[in-house]
Amino acid sequence: MTTTTTPDKQGIGTRFLSLARTDAHVTRLVVILLALLVMFAAIRPGNFANSYTWISMAVSFPEFGLMALGVMVCMVTGGIDLSVVGIANLSSIIAAMVMLALAPGGSGTAIGAAIAIALVVGALAGILNGILVAVVKIPAILATLGTLELFIGISIVLTAGSPISGLPPEYSALMAARLGGVLPMQFVVFLVAVALVALIMGRTTFGTKIYMLGTNATSAKFSGLNSVSLLIRTYLFSGILSAMAGLVMLANYNSAKADYGVVYTLLTVLIVVLGGVNPNGGSGRLIGVVLAIVILQILSSGLNLFPEISNFYRDLIWGGVLLLVIATSEITARNPFKRKQKEVS
């Protein structure tokens, strides 16, 4: 008797809806996202629904979105990376210096070399973080907070506190290109990073070990897991993602400076926690983090449509949304009726 397997014909949308039905937190994020879209489209239909607003969002959020992905992979291990902004700025500064040193007038080779060197800088910065956390045994929050200041200091020394501008026009043209005439290059870079994180976290032994370490570090150690090597590679990966964010910022600002994106440090942590990643490690879905990135960008862009609302209220609103989602998740998790249902099943 022969058996045949039927290929999975579910589309991306069907799989997404299936995930939303089985993950309560993802469902809540989807509801929040849809509510924001409907609200802003109804209140400011002419401004919010036009293509310029959406393209502007697609160009803007990859900056902090890429950093948030780096924070996510570190938080799943039970750690955190607060140095992402420092790595991004240092990488972009060195990339700008390489471009101007090799070919001030512009050169494809110089731009390629600058991008490669920026990624190497991000990787080296991540390795330093990993060594401090895994080898020296400094708590991740303290180690990366210290390296954040270190990277900012190096950036200030390299630039004397001034922005580096006058980049080759080829780099601006490269990042201003649109895939298929629609998708901004910044958004494409973000999609590539999301696909890479999804592949690593969901399809590789490396990703499985990251979740194992975050779930129970002691058990992982006794099972033969090399936590030192794993943590160093995890922070290295976060450093590369931060360097990619730096290259996006370099294109968006057309310059590099030590203090660009200073608000992103806490914003990325907010995104990752809002996305459902456990701050203690061991759990968290990439789809939740991506939804949180989009939600905060839509909320930010929507608030910009109301000039009467001061920017000072933005942090208040973001914090309120975060507390609401976390409180709802905790209440749901402690619901005795649902817990009893799980025990019976």
TrEMBL record:
It comes from the Bacteria. GO terms for molecular function: transmembrane transporter activity. Keywords: Cell inner membrane, Cell membrane, Membrane, Transmembrane, Transmembrane helix, Transport. The chain crosses the membrane at residues 25-43, 55-75, 82-103, 109-133, 140-161, 181-202, 230-250, 262-279, 286-306, 312-333. It is found in: Cell membrane. Pfam families: BPD_transp_2. Coiled coil: none annotated. Its main location: membrane. It is a multi-pass membrane protein. GO terms for cellular component: plasma membrane. This is ABC transporter permease. It comes from Tessaracoccus rhinocerotis.
